[in-house]
Design goal:
- A hairpin with a 4-residue loop joins strand 1 and strand 2.
- The protein has six helices and five strands, in the order H-H-H-H-E-E-H-E-E-H-E.
- The chain has helices at residues 3-13, 17-29, 32-35, 64-73, 97-114, 141-153, and strands at residues 78-81, 86-93, 119-123, 126-131, 161-162.
- Strands 1, 2, 3, 4 and 5 form a five-stranded antiparallel beta sheet that branches.
- Helices cover 42% and strands 15% of the residues.
- The protein has a domain at 64-153: Gyrase A, domain 2 (2-Layer Sandwich).
- The longest helix is centred in the middle third of the chain and has 18 residues, at 97-114.
- It has 163 residues and is α+β, with helices and mostly antiparallel strands.
- The chain binds the ligand C[C@H](O)[C@H](O)[C@H]1CNC2=NC(N)=NC(=O)C2=N1.
- InterPro entries: PCD_sf, Pterin_deHydtase.
- Keywords: Lyase.
- Belongs to the pterin-4-alpha-carbinolamine dehydratase family.
- Its EC number is 4.2.1.96.
Length: 163
């Protein structure tokens, strides 16, 4: 037990029994949320948020102008309509399976936090990624944000090349 806690216990046990009881009643009367539940500022928020603000990113489709602007900044992501919806796609190659899977693991953890997930295909050292937003059957800012997150995970091992 830390010295501080020992000190607190001694201090509390020196209270009169009635004061002690009053304190217990006060604590018991506090709403449970105050005592037990994490506040929004302490819990991890299961929504996709931009790095600069905490509001969830919208799932509305990007306009043609917005899409063009974002794609001009993203490196190597190609706009592909797969016949059903617009997507952005990129292929990554790594030294070996271990590095490819390490990359996928890091991306998976970030994607889960963002509640926005990649569609991907992996064979040995190759990872093909497709991003699209189911909720709008097309591209939203969430795909752009996930593409940025994915690109940041590359290079933490040595990718042989990016196709
Ligand atoms: C219920 C849950 O929040 C939604 O289904 C999320 C999960 N992950 C998702 N991932 C992707 N890529 N698109 C979505 O629209 C999406 N929606």
């Amino acid at each position: 037990m830390s010295r501080d806690l020992t000190h607190t216990r001694l201090w509390v046990s020196s209270f009169s029994p009635s004061l002690h009881l009053a304190m217990i009643r006060l604590v018991a009367s506090l709403p449970k949320r105050t005592l037990l539940q994490p506040t929004m500022s302490t819990m991890s928020v299961r929504t996709t948020t931009s790095s600069t603000q905490n509001a969830p990113l919208p799932v509305t489709p990007l306009t043609v102008k917005e899409r063009t602007e974002h794609l001009s900044v993203l490196q190597g992501w190609k706009l592909v309509n797969d016949g059903k919806r617009d997507t952005i796609q990129k292929s990554f190659r790594f030294e070996d399976f271990n590095e490819a899977f390490g990359f996928m693991t890091r991306v998976a953890m970030q994607a889960e936090k963002m509640d926005h997930h990649p569609e991907w295909f992996n064979v040995y050292n190759k990872v093909d990624i497709t991003l699209s937003t189911h909720d709008c059957s097309g591209l939203s800012i969430r795909d752009v944000e996930l593409a940025r997150v994915i690109d940041r995970q590359v290079g933490k091992e040595r990718p042989e090349s990016v196709v």
